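User: Last request for today: this protein with zinc ion, please.
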Amino acid sequence: MYVIGRKQESDSHRRANLKYKRNNREKLRLKDKEYRERIKLKVYNHYTHNDIKCKICGFKEIHALSIDHINNNGAYMRKNKIHGLGRDFYVWIIKNNYPDDLQVLCMNCQFIKRSVA
Ligand SMILES: [Zn+2]
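Assistant: Here's the final one, the structure of the complex with zinc ion:
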């Protein structure tokens, strides 16, 4: 009887949760986006000493900046599931205490770096 009681409770709880998610999809999406932006800023600020810009050319538009592997081993790291992409990557960086073989570069400089490597 207690088990059924708990089960009913957890079922209704689960349903309420689903309903909340359904009714607040936009709100949750924004919350997720905010979280992503926050940890991204945290990581960028770390590598740029709170002056977010490309390490090579100084370009400041954050949407054109990304984390670059100094040793060009990004593909290796992703392929071997050492870290993921996007938010997972930022979380990984923080958890790993900001590895020092990373830097912030703009897309132009990354492309140039890759083509001369
Ligand atoms: Zn640059």
